[in-house]
Write a structure and sequence with these properties.
There is one protein chain. By secondary structure, the chain is mainly α. It is built from 19 helices and no strands. It has helices at residues 24-38, 50-61, 66-74, 77-92, 100-123, 128-152, 164-177, 181-194, 199-216, 221-238, 243-255, 259-271, 276-292, 296-309, 314-328, 330-343, 348-351, 353-357, 368-377. The chain starts with 23 loop residues before the first helix and ends with a helix.
């Protein structure tokens, strides 16, 4: 990777572990023999050979997802680096130039590394921080290779159905899902340096910055919210119809004490037909904006509208109870909360719009950008 692309700080220690070819003890013993005989071992000495790696990628692209993903999840950091380096060298040495077949293989390897990040917890083979970062670095290395080919015009005509930007969006949204907003923002920022007018990417970068503000808080809170406000504003400049950017910009403005500016943005989202969760959140945020203006009646009405759209919306029930407490007394507030908690069950967790808010827009949650790439590149 070039120095100019070092937008991420993804360093880390390295270890070797693998069940796919040899037990870990055997790998360590082999490594000791190499070190004893030569005095030095490079990353290229480790991991499955190129032919085995290519077979794994082909199996993945052909629809056999489980076997390649479990293998990739089990690789240690040194194995991830060495297999990626060998694959990139193979792509560069293509005798016929950059062929569609080699681009497809690189894209398949990108999907495999990103898939490993997304499902590592489900497989029971947790990556750990270093393993996670190495898979992200590997995905970025592959992405940058075909991004550079795309820029210089050597991208095969058969491969032009997908842009590098689509891969950046998949990786950034995956990192946001995995609660790594700093990496998500760095990946989005790298894409924006190549393709500045990208409303969706600016929106995702703003979501990541907003999540960083929630996670970190403290004295950096206002700076992070200012950055999120800038990203959301730029997304709206690129696409004025982007309701998610309007919703999130409105909420940031409320949190920054500018409720009057936020109200028209939030009301537009609340009253526009579309995703129910987005509309419920808009009414919730609008209620908070009314409270900031000390308009209790308007706040209560907004919270009730949010609950009508999303009956299992816990935060809206709590906000309504709080507003009623000051306006109509303790008994009115108690009635709202008692009724909600007596009637609700575990199912409310899946239906609560607030639970998913920090993981990005509905269109980007649950790995949807990644799934879109997977459907285009992989056989079923």
């Amino acid at each position: 990777m070039s120095g100019g692309d070092s937008a991420l700080s993804l360093g880390g220690d390295a270890s070797v572990h693998e069940w796919w070819v040899l037990p870990a003890s055997a790998v360590r013993a082999a490594a000791l023999v190499v070190l004893a005989s030569t005095g030095v071992a490079t990353a290229e000495d480790y991991g499955p050979d190129l032919e085995t790696h290519l077979l794994l990628i082909e199996r993945y692209l052909s629809g056999d997802v489980e076997t390649p993903v479990r293998a990739a999840v089990s690789w240690g950091p040194i194995w991830i680096r060495s297999t990626t380096r060998r694959l990139l060298d193979w792509c560069e040495r293509s005798p016929g130039g950059v062929t569609a077949a080699r681009v497809r293989t690189a894209q398949g390897a990108f999907l495999l590394h990103t898939h490993a990040v997304l499902v590592s917890q489900d497989t029971g083979l947790a990556l750990g921080r270093t393993g996670h970062e190495e898979h992200v670095k590997a995905a970025l290395g592959l992405l940058r290779w075909f991004r550079d080919r795309y820029r210089e015009g050597t991208w095969p005509r058969e491969a032009r159905g997908l842009r590098p930007r689509d891969f950046y969006l998949a990786l950034a949204s995956a990192e946001l899902i995995m609660a790594r907003p700093d990496t998500a923002r760095a990946v989005a920022a790298e894409s924006l340096r190549s393709d500045g007018h990208d409303a969706q990417m600016r929106l995702l970068a703003g979501c990541a910055r907003e999540t960083e503000a929630v996670i970190r808080g403290g004295h950096r809170l206002d700076k992070e919210l200012r950055d999120a406000e800038r990203y959301f504003g730029e997304a709206l400049d690129d696409d004025p119809a982007l309701l998610e950017a309007r919703l999130r910009l409105g909420w940031v403005l409320v949190r920054r004490g500018r409720a009057e500016e936020a109200r028209p943005l939030l009301r537009t989202v609340a009253e526009t037909p579309g995703d129910p969760g987005r509309r419920a959140l808009a009414w919730l945020f609008l209620g908070k904006a009314h409270e900031e203006r000390e308009d209790a009646r308007a706040a209560i009405e907004a919270y009730r509208r949010a609950i009508e759209i999303a009956p299992h919306f816990q935060v809206a029930h709590v906000a309504l109870a709080h507003a009623l407490e000051g306006h109509a007394g303790d008994e009115a507030a108690r009635e709202v909360l008692v009724a909600f908690f007596l009637e609700s069950s575990r199912s409310w967790v899946r239906d609560d719009p607030w639970n998913a808010y920090l993981f990005g827009p509905p269109e980007m949650r649950l790995g949807r950008p990644f799934e879109a790439l997977h459907e285009k590149l992989c056989e079923r």
